[in-house]
Design goal:
Elements: E1 5-10, E2 13-18, H1 20-30, H2 32-40, H3 45-54, H4 62-70, H5 89-98, H6 100-108, H7 113-122, H8 130-139
Length: 151
């Protein structure tokens, strides 16, 4: 388990403090068994939050709890195919180049870049973030080219 620590000095004393992010993560992990138990009993997420908050076991806002609850497994999503995700931008660039014709076709049909990204992501043709998609597409000058308006 990796926690985020900041080191600071307070009135001459060495002090190690958890950042809020690390503290909230620790709160979820330390109450994980109770959270899973309450959830398996059919208790709703807001009810679980109210119970833990009223008992003083968590201090985070509901939205933070909800986001952490959805990623109880330390924020790491399982990859059912067992494939490692590619992290290199050159691989992202290759994926966009391989799907360039489809991207342009969808843009010409009137889809927004966001919709094209979601489509490719859903079909497993692009395995990177939205920002990478925008930046690489822009660098490759992929944009809506409507042939009928070029006359």
């Amino acid at each position: 388990m990796c926690l985020v620590f900041t080191v600071g000095l307070m009135k001459g004393y060495g002090l190690i403090m958890l950042t809020r992010r690390g503290r909230y993560k620790l709160e979820i992990l330390s109450n994980l068994e109770e959270i899973n138990s309450l959830h398996s009993q059919g208790m709703s997420i807001p009810s679980i939050y109210k119970k833990l908050f009223n008992d003083g076991k968590i201090t985070m806002a509901y939205h933070t709890f909800y986001c952490r609850f959805k990623n109880k497994d330390d924020g790491k999503k399982e990859n059912p195919e067992g494939k490692k995700r590619k992290k290199s931008n050159s691989n992202a660039r290759e994926e966009i180049i391989n799907n360039k014709d489809e991207i342009i076709e969808l843009l010409n049909k009137g889809y927004l870049m966001l919709d094209v990204y979601r489509h490719l992501k859903a079909e497993g043709k692009f395995n990177y973030g939205l920002t990478s998609f925008y930046v690489i597409s822009k660098s490759l000058e992929i944009k809506n080219v409507n042939i009928s308006s070029i006359d």
